[in-house]
């Protein structure tokens, strides 16, 4: 470049110096904005603007402090007034009227002074620590405590209350069946059972049994009949002492059940429930469960007496066959007879039988009745009968209705009364007649009455066939006998 060119450039620079300065400042500003992070990181110098902001903030804080100093301490003044009033005689009189307790003035003032000091201490602690982390920490602790209280009060407490109610109910309901102090073992001499004005209720508002009184002599068979819900099963539960009678007494051979031990009492019973429950074990183990020390031969003997041995031997594994959960692999009749064998192996003094309501065939029912007879032979026996034809030979039949014994006697005596027992009998025979086919001649419009052979002759169709008798002929003969008996019964009623 020549000297003239340099001179022209110098002149140009002098003319455009303000523009160059402005351009340079703008360029630097753009560069600083684009590289703000690098600039502040490498050279953290507080700008003049930042210093001015800090000064303004300090001025505002000073103003706020001065305003607070000039502000009237309303809270402190209010607390002082409240304390002064509470410490006066008027405050003492109000507190006494609320709590209804006489309070000495000296003691009262000491309490109010301590309370005021405590409140003021809390107030000062708050003001001293409100800007520190201690207050935030305390708030977090309070929140945690509140959540814990919510858990205890709304989640845990209802569960605890329900458990308390349940345990209380169990205690009051079953406490009576515990052995009382000084209880003695039951001594069985014959098995005489006596109910004397026994009362019981599951719900105090509704009595279940009312003044139940009867006597079962040793070796007798007592049948309980009646409609569902009348209280038949409850009578046996009281005898087995699942519950204690709320009034009256129950005695065995003169010994009150509440005075004997539960173990000795229940060892005296053999129970065949309506719905037997077997374990998912072998037949041998299920029968032996009633008396664990029983031998295999004793188990087989009990099964023979229960008329189930031959059926068991047809199973692939015999006595080691598994019965499934609750005995699902067995039929209703087989299940009932295994339960009878279990009761037999106990060698009980008193037998409690609850007939199954499930429908079974005639042959199976005959086998079950035969097993029942063997089990009850020579033993005091109680039967809840659902088929009245099975308890005709009972020594005593009790008709239970709404928790009361309304009729009692033998089969013939109850028929002579022509009361509830006859009504139940008629319902069963009519239902049976309606479910079977009749042999009435076509077009005659008359039906030949079906006759229960066991009612008139005591001969069952099975026994008649075994003896070679003509069952049809027996039906015709007994039909005439039944007609005569019905006419006689009607004459007695009128």
TrEMBL record:
| InterPro entries per record | AAA+_ATPase (IPR003593), ABC1_TM_sf (IPR036640), ABC_transporter-like_ATP-bd (IPR003439), ABC_transporter-like_CS (IPR017871), P-loop_NTPase (IPR027417), Type_1_exporter (IPR039421)
UniProt membrane topology term? Multi-pass membrane protein
**PANTHER family named among the record's database cross-references:** ATP-BINDING CASSETTE SUB-FAMILY B, MITOCHONDRIAL POTASSIUM CHANNEL ATP-BINDING SUBUNIT
Which Pfam families does the protein's record reference? ABC_tran (PF00005)
- SUPFAM superfamilies (UniProt xref): ABC transporter transmembrane region, P-loop containing nucleoside triphosphate hydrolases
Q: Which residues cross the membrane?
A: 77-99, 151-174
Domain of life, source organism: Eukaryota
Q: Mind telling me what this protein is named?
A: ABC transporter domain-containing protein
Q: Which PROSITE patterns match?
A: ABC_TRANSPORTER_1, ABC_TRANSPORTER_2
Stated family: Belongs to the ABC transporter superfamily. ABCB family. Heavy Metal importer (TC 3.A.1.210) subfamily.
Q: Which residue intervals are annotated with compositional bias (Acidic residues) in the record?
A: 51-62
Q: Where is the ABC transporter domain?
A: 193-427
Chief location: membrane
Q: Where is it localised?
A: Membrane
């Amino acid at each position: 470049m020549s000297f003239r060119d340099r001179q022209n450039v110098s002149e140009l620079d002098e003319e455009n110096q303000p523009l160059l300065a402005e351009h340079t400042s703008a360029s630097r500003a753009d560069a600083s904005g684009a590289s703000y992070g690098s600039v502040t990181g490498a050279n953290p110098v507080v700008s003049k603007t930042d210093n001015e902001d800090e000064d303004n903030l300090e001025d505002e804080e000073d103003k706020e402090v001065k305003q607070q100093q000039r502000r009237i301490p309303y809270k402190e003044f209010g607390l002082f007034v409240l304390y002064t009033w509470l410490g006066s005689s008027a405050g003492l009189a109000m507190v006494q009227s609320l709590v209804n307790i006489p309070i000495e003035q000296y003691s009262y003032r000491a309490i109010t002074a301590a309370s005021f000091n405590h409140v003021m201490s809390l107030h000062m602690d708050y003001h001293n620590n409100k800007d520190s982390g201690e207050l935030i920490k305390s708030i977090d602790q309070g929140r945690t405590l509140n959540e814990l209280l919510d858990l205890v009060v709304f989640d845990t407490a209802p569960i605890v209350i329900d458990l308390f109610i349940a345990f209380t109910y169990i205690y009051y309901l079953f406490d009576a069946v515990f052995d009382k102090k000084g209880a003695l073992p039951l001594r069985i001499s014959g098995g005489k059972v006596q109910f004397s004005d026994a009362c019981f209720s599951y719900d105090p508002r509704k009595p279940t049994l009312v003044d139940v009184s009867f006597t079962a002599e040793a070796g007798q068979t007592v049948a309980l009949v009646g409609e569902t819900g009348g209280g038949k099963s409850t009578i046996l539960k009281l005898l087995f002492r699942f519950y204690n009678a709320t009034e009256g007494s129950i005695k065995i051979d003169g010994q009150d059940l509440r005075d004997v031990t539960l173990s000795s009492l229940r060892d005296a019973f053999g129970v065949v429930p309506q719905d037997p429950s077997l374990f998912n074990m072998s037949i041998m183990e299920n029968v032996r469960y009633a008396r664990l020390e029983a031998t295999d031969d004793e188990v087989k003997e009990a099964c023979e007496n229960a008329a189930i041995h031959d059926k068991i031997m047809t199973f692939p594994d015999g006595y080691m066959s598994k019965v499934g959960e609750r005995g699902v692999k067995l039929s209703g009749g087989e299940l009932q007879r295994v339960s009878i064998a279990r009761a037999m192996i106990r060698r009980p003094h008193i037998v409690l039988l609850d007939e199954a309501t499930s429908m079974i065939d005639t042959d199976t029912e005959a086998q079950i009745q035969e097993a029942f007879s063997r089990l009850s032979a020579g033993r005091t026996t109680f039967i809840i009968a659902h088929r009245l034809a099975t308890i005709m030979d009972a020594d005593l039949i009790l008709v239970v209705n709404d928790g009361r014994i309304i009729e009692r006697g033998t089969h013939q005596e109850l028929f002579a009364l022509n009361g509830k027992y006859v009504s139940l009998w008629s319902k069963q025979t009519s239902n049976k007649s309606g479910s079977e086919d009749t042999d009435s001649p076509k077009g005659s419009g008359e039906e030949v009455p079906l006759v229960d052979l066991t009612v008139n002759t005591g001969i069952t169709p099975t026994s008649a066939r075994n003896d070679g008798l003509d069952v049809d002929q027996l039906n015709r003969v007994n039909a005439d006998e039944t007609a005569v008996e019905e006419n006689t019964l009607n004459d007695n009623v009128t």
